[in-house]
Design a protein that fits this description.
The chain is mainly β. The protein contains no helices and 11 strands.
């Protein structure tokens, strides 16, 4: 037995302009799992390849957390780059690079648009740390910033590339 639910949302800016972006969501479920699939069309989009590296201090012992990205134009759409569960710790390569579960997101190339990359970390005793960075989308190039989780500093690098239509 499977259940299929599909919803669609379209956003229009102004009275005479065509839609700037569309977001389609479909959920497929069966007895043991569910697949939540979201597909979006972003006009004038660029690809943002995100990488992170611990440059100072350790990730806090016993802390859970998540790294996420989202664009300003689709407020309720968060892309999870990494989720850290109980006793898992931060997955690191030998050089301190964080092993993200997802690296690539898209953003719109227009005025007042940004890509937000954020971290939320929380411990057993109710301690919580949140930090975020806003990157202005570019057609090409690289931007960097630093996220802070207590004494742990994480360098975030976003490498931009233009998505061309065929």
């Amino acid at each position: 037995l499977s259940v299929k639910r599909m919803t669609a949302r379209s956003s229009v800016r102004g009275n005479t302009q065509p839609p700037d972006s569309s977001l389609f969501t479909s959920v497929y479920t069966n007895k043991i799992s569910a697949l939540d699939l979201t597909f979006g069309h972003i006009v004038g989009s660029v690809e943002a390849s995100v990488s992170m590296k611990v440059i100072h201090g350790p990730w806090l012992d016993g802390f859970r957390g998540s790294f996420a990205a989202r664009t300003a134009s689709i407020n309720d759409m968060t892309v999870w780059l990494l989720e850290i569960g109980d006793n898992n710790g931060l997955p690191l390569a030998d050089d301190g690079t964080i092993k993200l579960q997802r690296h690539v997101v898209c953003a719109e190339l227009k005025r007042r648009e940004y890509l937000e990359v954020s971290v939320s970390a929380y411990g057993v005793g109710g301690q919580r740390f949140d930090d975020g960075l806003h990157f202005t989308p570019q057609e090409r190039g690289k931007l960097e910033g630093t996220l802070n989780v207590d004494s742990c500093e994480i360098e975030v690098t976003v490498t931009w590339s233009l998505i061309k239509y065929c």
